[in-house]
Amino acid sequence: MLRDKSLIPLSHQHQRALAMCVRIDRASPIGESDLVAWQAEIAQIFQNEIGIHFSSEEQVVFPAARAFSELIPLVDELCQDHAWLREQFAVATGERGSAKDVNLLAQRLSAHIRREERQLFQRMQELMDPEALAVLGRKLYEALKDSPQACVVPTQATRLRSAK
Fold it and tell me: Backbone phi, then psi, for 131, in 5-degree steps?
């Protein structure tokens, strides 16, 4: 099913975060010489987009989803994921953060995004009427208006490398 236009801004942010996760996976194991560059990129992405993204989901999407009893357990799990991911972003980008922390973050973030896209967003589109989705879209637009809508350009250390 195509994504409803009300959820497309979040889906675009998901795509950018997944691209980072794929690059981290392909760069693994991350060498110590590249770790600082990865940490800087992850911190920038969290500050510019993911932090605002999480807040928008928690303030707009999750309350709308909770109107449907079948989605409440999923929303509760996604909220727990947000809390864990916020902590892990701090760990992965901190002084004591390791390549293993960066990898763990990427794996968990990727799984989280896929659950939102494949389960939450999909089911919301099936359950919500077009008017409710349009209201949701307007609220999301307002919540996301201060979030940059551009990709972070990878550095030489964090760019996707071709297979040798």
Answer: -65, -45
Q: Would you say the pTM of this structure is higher than 0.85?
A: yes
CATH class of this structure's domain 8-144? mainly alpha
Average pLDDT over residues 26-48: 92
Q: Is 29 helix (H, G, I), strand (E, B) or coil?
A: coil
Give Cα 31 to chain centroid, integer Å.
24
| Cα–Cα distance measured from residue 27 to residue 24, given in angstroms and rounded to the nearest whole number | 5
Length of the chain: 164
Based on its alpha-carbon atoms, the radius of gyration of the chain, rounded to whole angstroms, reads 16
Half-sphere exposure of 52 (CA within 13 A, CB side): 18
pLDDT band of 164, cuts 50, 70, 90: very low
Q: Are 53 and 13 spatial neighbours (Cβ–Cβ below 8 Å)?
A: yes
